[in-house]
Amino acid sequence: MSADNGASSEKIPQIKDAGVLALLKQQTTTKFVPGTKWEYSNSGYAVLAMVVEKVSGQGFGQFLQERIFGPLKMQNTIAYERGKNEVPHRAYGHTRKEAGWQETDQSSTSAVLGDSGIYSSLDDLAKWDDGLRYYRLLIEAEMLPAVAPVKLEPAGRRCYGLGSGLSKDKPAEYGFGWFLDSYKGHARMWHFGETVGFRTAIQRFVNDKLTIIVLCNREDVSAQALSLKVADLYLPR
Predict the structure, then answer these.
(1) How many angstroms separate the CA atoms of 191 and 174, rounded?
(2) Is the pLDDT at 90 greater than 80, yes or no?
């Protein structure tokens, strides 16, 4: 997963979570009246990370380590912060150019932790998945809001964007950090991620006890499409 690190990071001016809030303060209007529509917001997650810091009295990375990574023994997962820690054995993002592959690892928002900046591995993400499945982080009642889709009038339901890999005309069903629409009749929680040089996807078919995670350090593939191809191999027809 992408974060702020690597040889190219020193050359790119980067914004952090507080900088996102500063940019939001410059806005004079919203896209729509709250509660009338839905749209995915990276900025919202940056602000949420700052809320966590305010309430907990800890840095967001420290909070994640003490409340999630540590208890689940995710020893190869880290919230990267330049000058504070390092990511050993990390993968770098790449983009295919006419002359071949080019390392395209960083963007101006790579240091924002609320919506990115977390490095992990498949083994550690499997531990995180088990932590959610067996309620090791939150009890079932606390987890319910995350899996309850936002309720809006049909006219206000936001459709999926083109980057989702789904039909742009399909209404989005979103909870707290999870898309919640079914796939071929199977209930699921899922998400995808994109940043320069990286593509990621997770599909959680809770009733089928199946979770698929795809991490790609190249941007010419669809992690979402790959994850669904795997799902088709395992889900009952």
Answers:
(1) 10
(2) yes
